[in-house]
Amino acid sequence: MTEMYNWSLKKMKRMIVALIGTTILFVGIAMIFLPGPAVVVIPAALGILATEFAWARKALQLVKDRIKRTTNSLNNNEEQKKEKSS
Fold it and tell me: Which of 21, 32, 43, 84 minimizes the number of CB atoms within 10 Å of its CB?
C-alpha cells in the first residue's frame, strides 16, 4: 500500500511541476511578442520543467549553450572595436 501511495505522490508532483512549468513557459513565449523579460522567463520555466523531464533538461542545456555563444560573440565584437579604435 505504501508503494502505491509513494507512486501516487510522485505522479502528483510530476503533474504539478508540469502544470506550473508549462504555464510559465507559455507566459515566457507570449513575452516574446508582448512586453516582458522572455529571455529570463523561458529559461526559468525550462529549469522548473527540467526537475522532472529529460527533454526539458536538454532544451535548457541548448538555451545555456546559445546564451554562452552569444555572450562570447558580443564580447569578441567589443574587443575588436576597442582594438580598431586604439
Answer: 84
What is the residue type of 73? S
Q: Using one digit for the tens of pLDDT, what is the confidence trace for 33-42?
A: 999 999 899 9
| Domain range enclosing 70 | 2-85
Residue among 73, 37, 42, 72 nearest 59 (CA): 42
Please give the tally of structural domains in the chain: 1
The phi and psi torsions of 53 (rounded to 5 degrees) equal: -125, 130
* Cell numbers at 85, concatenated: 579604435
Q: Alpha-carbon Rg of the chain, whole angstroms?
A: 19
